[in-house]
Amino acid sequence: MANNPAFIVALVLGALMLGCVCYVYVRHQAFGLGGACLSGFAVVLLGMSVWKTVDVAFDEKGVRAKLEQIESVAKRAESTASQAQVETRRTSQAIGKLERTVELALVQEKLKAAGVYSGPSDGYFGPASKAALARLQQQKGVPATGELDDATRRVLNLPKPSSTTP
């Protein structure tokens, strides 16, 4: 590593920066000793990592090749981020649908307990479930729409729907 010119340049620059930080401390005592040492150490590490990672070559070809590599990595990262956003949206929609299905199955169970529904508690709110809900609404003095509105939620003691429910 000591024969690597980029490493030597980074080390020298880091040492110079550390010297500057120490000079500011001694001259102005603006930083605490711990802060000056940590700042200098961080600068050295940062300089070494940048020079090592970017791998600056001393000719135009080397710099251009490294820039192309960096651009390629950036494009892949952007593509991966876009794919992750699409998957996140899909997952969020699927969770919303699942929440709705579970909620409707719970409503069907409550309709069974009230004695107005005898079908399956499958989360599919078909004509039989809507008719049963309308019967319960009529019994409880709520407008008989067959829809699960806020008034019916209160009658069934259900929470308001979450924001992810479609």
Number of helices: 5
| Mean pLDDT reading | 77
Main beta sheet strand tally, sense and closure: none
Rg, please? 33 Å
Description:
The chain has 166 residues and is an all-alpha fold. It is 73% helix and 0% strand. It is built from 5 helices and no strands. It has helices spanning 5-28, 33-54, 60-113, 127-140, 150-156. Helix 1 (5-28) packs antiparallel against helix 2 (33-54). The longest helix has 54 residues, at 60-113. The two termini are 59 Å apart. The mean pLDDT is 77.
Give short descriptive properties of this protein:
166 residues; mainly alpha; 5 helices
SSE topology sketch:
Elements: H1 5-28, H2 33-54, H3 60-113, H4 127-140, H5 150-156
Helix pairs in contact: 1-2
Task: Please summarize what this structure is.
This protein has 166 residues and is an all-alpha fold. Helices cover 73% and strands 0% of the residues. The protein has helices at residues 5-28, 33-54, 60-113, 127-140, 150-156.
